[in-house]
Fold:
Amino acid sequence: MRASRLLSVLLLLQNRGRMTAEELAAELEVSVRTVYRDVEALSAAGVPVYADRGRTGGYQLVDGYRTRLTGLTEEEAQSLSLAGLPAAAAELGLGTVLAAAQLKLHAAMPSELRAGASKVSERFFLDVPGWHRGIESLPRLSELADAVWQTRRIKVSYERWGQRKVERVLEPLGLILKAGNWYLAARCEADDRTYRVSRIEELEDLGETFERPSDFDLARYWHEWSEQFEKRMYSRVAVVRLNEFARILVPFYLGAVGARALREAAAEPDENGWLTMELPVEPGESAVGELLRFGGNLEVLEPPGLRERLAEEIGKMGARYG
Structure:
């Protein structure tokens, strides 16, 4: 553990130049006294590190000194796939591992490439969740990630839609972060299924490993599952008229399904700018709330039952505000 920290001190000084003991302590999450001992150990080992005294002082390496002791561990190499998602890496328990991997990778670069990489990180930032949403904080996530890594069979207590709890024995195959929400792809009773991690209430490691299917492709599975989920979610079709503003709102309110329907609409807007088209909607009362969001910018033509329900709700709203 200490050897790894000493290497981190060395790489930090190599990458960033002069750093104070307080800065090193904050970066490594140790005490300032520990930093003093680590710097002394590096000096005793022959590393040319020296201290500048005073308010603007700090530790730095002799100009031109570089180390090539930058080998990545297996965990660090694996964590680099999450380099653009530091919050997600932290949720998976890989935050410090990712930081160490990035530090070693940075140190191994020639100075001109290192400067370019720093410029990119200074000027571009990836923020995954949508507005008004954050990445879920999930106490079971790191345990799930460990089960995925180790191909270990688990038993979970899962809350299904409708508040019904079930128990399942799962073979976890992968984790997916979608718009701030985590999902688990797992094999259950010979079928591949998807579980929302926030609904997993209890988790037990059964102490058994399983053979991961050689033909399972997580990206392909998620793409196909997402398409089927959207089809199930938007299983009805309404014939609607939309003005230009409503057409702008469709991708925001109905996502990729609505945007695709808009692109595939066969008709053209009329002389007043209204477009008649088929729009996928959710079944039941969900469609009423979804379409009311468009206000007067959308009119439902068919089916008659949906049009009547919207007219009823709009009438209630008019009476309430009138």
Summary: Residues 74-122 form one domain. Residues 76-85 have pLDDT under 50 and may be disordered. The chain has four domains: 1-61, 74-122, 140-216, 235-321.
